[in-house]
Structure formats: structure tokens, C-alpha cells
Amino acid sequence: MDNESEPYVRLATLRQLHKVVAELNTARSLADTLQAVADGVVKGLGYELACVNLARPDGDLIVASVAGNAAAEALMAGRVAPRATWDRLLSIGERWGALRFVPHTEAWVMDGGDMPIWRTDGPPPRFPDEWHPEDLLLAPMYAPPAGGGELIGVISVDRPQGGRKPGPWGREALQTYAFQAGIAISNARLRANMQRALVRLEREQQALRASEESFRQAFEYAPSGMAVAEMGGDQHGKLLRANDALCRLLGRPAATMRRYSFSDLVHPEDVGLLLRTSAEGGRAELRLARRDGTYVWVSLRNSVVADAADGPRFLLTHIEDIEERKGRELALAHRASHDSLTGLPNSAELRARLSGRLCSRPHGPDGQAADPEGPDEFAYSYGYGPEEMARPLGGYDHHTHTIVPEGEAAGGKGLAVLFCDLDGFKSINDRFGHNAGDAVLIEVARRLSSVVRDGDTVARLGGDEFVVLADGLGPEDAEDLAVRLRTAILPPIRVDSRAVRVGASFGIGWAGCGMTAEEVLQSADQRMYMEKRSRSGNRPNHRRAG
């Protein structure tokens, strides 16, 4: 894989990983969750066979789900292996972070007949990193908190697609997935326990006190945060109860928690996500405020506690701390969307930001297109009234069209796209080497970033090409910005005790709805070459489109 394509592959893998992790939390039962875990390894992580071995109450592990091979499923499903055998297998495996890789040279450990294994056919490996038919990769799953609790199962995988052992990126993806699978299985068990408690409350009216105590025990001593909120009435959205885990998570005493609703605690940028979360099985990942003013990422899942006479009355919310996982996801997403040399957004991220501002429809006379779906009625349970729900939430409910500033349209303001190509950069690379060239690119990136406003984007398209996105500019503003950017680049750059200079040519294009990101970039690129030709008086070399 070349360096240019690696960010695209990582971004695609990360999106697929996010998709299969999301599917883990949509399963309605423990059995569905276990099958979703196995299916996600095959569909999302690129392995030909996945087996989920679940720890039973007696400690032994049973094959609970298999994906990728019908014959393997028929042979292995329901088989049980002793915990001691699993412990020995995990202890001899090579440590790949939290993963354990058991090479074919150690396959004798599994020959005792009590391990549910599936051996694939195939020739012996020809390369050091090629997968052997008897290799085995294991991903242990642990219960919360933070994946450091008891062992709840092991995911075993066989033969990565492509036939090569996973590299660091693939190992990290499998490790992250196993971490999330452990949480999903724990949550499924917790939800099953809560559902059984709620069924008892509904069916056993004569044993109401005993059922209430059972619910209280599950609520108060749950390892994850739990809350009950009012639905409807004058106190809609008001927190009625919060368990000890939630109080510790937010650093707030239980008495003060009853003063708030979720709308008081959620991060302002996540309000729209909160309102769009539906009551029936609704789920969201958002930030809640701690007492010290900081925010913590949580996974929030809702269930309605129904009153037989009056219908839904209370909202039962399960809150899981995902700060550690979210930090890893954000770090992975940043690496996949940013240039490793300059730290600027890369080509893929630039195109994504441009595409996010553009739609395929021509703009209307008011420059806006309303979302046909209004705010969720469930927003009332979070403490929002009709006035708050009627307001657009930071662009969630409306799309403001991007308009090319022509004549008096939109006040002559638009989204300017400045294409920058460095002049003289190649000679620096040729004379002083690539290290000097890299130093120049880093300094140019810093200078460009120092000129633009907060909210503008400076991205590295590739090589010595940069792109600046600046919204709310008119033609004269864009020309002035190009002059300031060129002026910032011109001063000498110190590289290894020598001073070098580069120039810059700028082309100014404009983004508008009805255009694609590629069309916008190509327009700015062509304008840059027209400027370079007009300044040099020479005909430019042929330039590839896109």
C-alpha cells in the first residue's frame, strides 16, 4: 500500500469499524448481541472465520456464536472447553497488546481433544508475515469497568482476508472491537436483567414490594450509571433518581442531581443529538458536564417504564462511561484525516469538509432548505419546551446553501477556496534533500495557519500544494487574503543553518451548492495556473485533472 492511499484505507476501515460497533448496541437480546459480535469480525474487520466463546457461570467457555463458515458453525456451536485449557492457551500466546497470537508451532497445546477448534486447509506460508492454516488469534473480552473486569469471553479468529497476519493497524482495530464487544455483551446481560425485573413488576402485582426491591438493587448497584426521569407533566425531563455510579461519574451528590434535567447537563454542541434521540430504544453518544466544569463522553440508552393505566410515564436511562474509548476513536480519526508531516487536514478530510457544505440542489431564493422532519416529540422529556424546540439547533434542522458570490447574491459573500502551489520548492528538495523539503513544508503550514481566522481550514492537498477554505468572504476579501498568505510565505526559512526561500502562486475559486468538491478544487487549481502563467508569461505544463 502506498503512502497516499493509506489514509483512505484507514479512514474506510475506521468507518466500517464504527458501523459494526454501532450494530453491537442495536441488538435486542444477548443471543443477537453474541451473533452480532461474530458477524462484525467477518464483515467489518476482514477475517474469514470468527468464533465467540462465552464464559459460563461455572467458568468454562462455550461456543456461543460462529460466523464466516457454515461447516465450522455446525461442528463447533455449543461445544464447551474447560477454563484451565483456555487459561493455558492465553498464557502461551504471543502478546499483541491485549490480543494473543498462537502460532502453528504451538498448535500441540490444542491437540488434547477438549478445545473447539477449526483448522483451515491451505499450503504452508511462503512469506514471514503470511498466515499459516493452523495459526490462531485470540481477543479476550472483559467486563466493565474500563474493560478491566472479569473475563466474559474470547473471540477467536482465523485467516485474515488477504492471507497475511494483521499489522499494527489491524491489531489495534481488533483490540478496540473486542473492548466494545465486551461492553456490549455486559450491557445486553444488564438489559436482560432489567427487562426481567420490569416484567415481574408488571405481571406480579401482588409481589410489588419484592419486585421494587429487586429493581432498586439492580439500579443502585449497577456498575454503569442509571437515571430515572419524568416524562410529561410540569416536571418533564426532571431527574427523579440517579444511582451511585452516575453520581461518581459526574462528581455530583445524589441530592443535587435531582435539581437537573438532562438538558441542563448535556454539552451545548450535543443538544441536537439529544433531541433526536427517540424514546423507544434510543441511543446516543454525547458529553455530560461534571461538577468541576469538564465534560465526559458517555453512551446513553433509553427505555420507557410504562404505567399500565396512564401509558409511558418515566424514562429509564443507562449511562456508560466511554471516555477512554472515545479518546482512542478521536485519536484514530485524527490520524486518518490529517497529514502526518504538517498536522494539517489531509486531502480526504478537505474533500469531506467541502462536501459537507455542498448539496446537489440549486439554492432557493432564501438560501435555505428546511428539514422536512421536525424536532422529536421526545425532546419534551429532556426538559425542552415548544419555544426551544422551534429554534434551529446549530444547523441540525436546516441546511444553509453555499452560494457563489455573483452580483448582489448573498451580499457578495461566499466560501472562498484558495489553491496554493509553492514556487521553487523542487529545487530545495533537489539541492538540500528531502529533510530540508519537509522542514519547509512544516514552516509553510505554520505560516498559513497563522494568517487565517479561527474556523477557516488550511489543508495539505499533497506534495507542495495547500488549500485554504475561508467562509464569508467577498472577491476583494479573498484577494486580500491571498496577498497576506503569499506575504507570510516569502520571508526566508531557516533550514540546517541556511536560509532558503519559496514563493507561492494562488488560485481563488468559489464553492456553491450544485457543484462537487472535485469541481470546486479543479476550478481553484486552474485559476492558480492561469495566475502562474500570467506572471511568468510562459505556457504552463499540462496539468492532470482532479
Q: What's the helix count?
A: 17
Relative helix content: 25-40%
Q: List segments where confidence is low: pLDDT < 50 over at least 5 consecutive residues.
A: 365-382, 386-397, 539-546
Biggest sheet strand order reads 3-2-1-7-6-5-4
The main β sheet shows up as: 7 strands, antiparallel
Radius of gyration: 29 Å
Strand content: 15-25%
The chain-level mean pLDDT equals: 78
Number of strands: 20
Span between termini? 21 Å
Shape: globular
Label the structural class: alpha+beta
Summarize the entry for a quick read.
This protein is α+β, with helices and mostly antiparallel strands and 546 residues long.
Q: In words, what does this structure look like?
A:
It is a single chain. The strands form five sheets. This protein has a seven-stranded antiparallel β-sheet, sandwiched between helices. A five-stranded antiparallel β-sheet has the order 9-8-12-11-10. The protein has a four-stranded antiparallel β-sheet with strand order 16-17-15-20, sandwiched between helices. The protein is globular, with a radius of gyration of 29 Å. It contains 17 helices and 20 strands. α2 runs antiparallel to α5 (168-203), α5 (168-203) packs antiparallel against α6 and α15 runs antiparallel to α16 (475-489). 32% of the residues are buried. With 546 residues, the protein is α+β, with helices and mostly antiparallel strands. A hairpin with a 5-residue loop joins β10 (283-289) and β11 (295-307).
